């Protein structure tokens, strides 16, 4: 029995080390400090320099995984919430409205996304693929006007990133009101009439989970 116990202890230690490295990477990325050295990262994580290569082959791989981990938190939260809705246009609106509000919940995580720039809209996880799927479904349902999905993602994603940047720069601003206003304009851009867009941006949102 001793061997499985020892293996479990080693696995837990490896997981703690990996999580510490990811936490340090997220902090540096949130501060816009991607030029730090591996030594600085391991010092911030309080782990040995040599242990870095037990988990990541390079700093770029670590930073990529740090961004991925933030997007995963968002994705899991978003997927649980939108499962309550059938209308793809409403799914898109709810996702946009709750993502804007996320800036107040996990500002450091949002800064990681912001400091990744618009390249985050080209990733195969997190924000972009889900929004793309929702937009296509809303177009097929006649809720949004036809528009190239890739162009639509860049238009909506640019609006979202701009909103998140504004909220980060203005901590006193009403995140809910600004987010709903931006969502309204994006829905209008996609061809939704004023009344329908107002309806989707004034409905009560489900409780946002604690992160």
Describe this structure in words.
The chain has 211 residues and is an all-alpha fold. The protein has nine helices and no strands.
> Radius of gyration from the CA trace?
20 Å
Mean pLDDT: 91
The topology string of helices and strands comes to HHHHHHHHH
How would you classify the helix and strand content by structural class?
mainly alpha
Low-confidence region ranges: none
Q: Please report the distance between the alpha carbons of the first and last residues.
A: 37 Å
| Shape summary | elongated
Helix content: 55-70%
Q: What's the main sheet like?
A: none
Strand content: under 5%
What's the helix count? 9
**Count of β-strands:** 0
Keywords:
single chain, 211 residues, 9 helices, 69% helix, elongated
Layout: helices, strands, pairs:
Blueprint: H1 2-30, H2 38-45, H3 59-82, H4 88-105, H5 107-114, H6 127-140, H7 149-169, H8 175-189, H9 194-202
Helix pairs in contact: 1-2, 1-3, 1-5, 3-4, 3-5, 4-5, 4-6, 4-7, 4-8, 5-7, 6-7, 7-8, 8-9
Summarize the structure.
The protein is mainly α and 211 residues long.
């Amino acid at each position: 029995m001793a061997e499985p116990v020892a293996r479990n202890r080693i696995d837990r230690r490896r997981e703690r080390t990996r999580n510490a490295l990811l936490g340090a990477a997220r902090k540096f990325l949130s501060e816009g400090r991607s030029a730090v050295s591996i030594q600085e990262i391991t010092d911030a994580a309080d782990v040995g320099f040599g242990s870095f290569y037990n988990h990541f082959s390079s700093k770029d791989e670590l930073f990529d995984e740090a961004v991925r981990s933030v997007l995963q938190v968002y994705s899991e939260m978003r997927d649980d919430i939108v499962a309550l809705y059938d209308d793809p246009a409403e799914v898109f609106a709810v996702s946009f409205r709750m993502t804007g509000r996320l800036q107040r919940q996990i500002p450091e995580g949002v800064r990681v996304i912001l400091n990744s720039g618009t390249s985050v809209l080209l990733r195969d996880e997190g924000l972009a693929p889900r929004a793309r799927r929702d937009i296509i479904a809303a177009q097929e349902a006649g809720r949004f006007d036809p528009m190239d999905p890739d162009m639509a993602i860049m238009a909506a994603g640019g609006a979202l990133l701009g909103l998140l940047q504004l909220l980060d720069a203005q901590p006193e601003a009403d995140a809910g009101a600004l987010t709903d206003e931006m969502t309204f304009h994006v829905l209008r851009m996609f061809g939704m009439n004023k009344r329908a867009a107002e309806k989707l941006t004034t409905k009560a949102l489900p409780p946002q989970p604690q992160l």
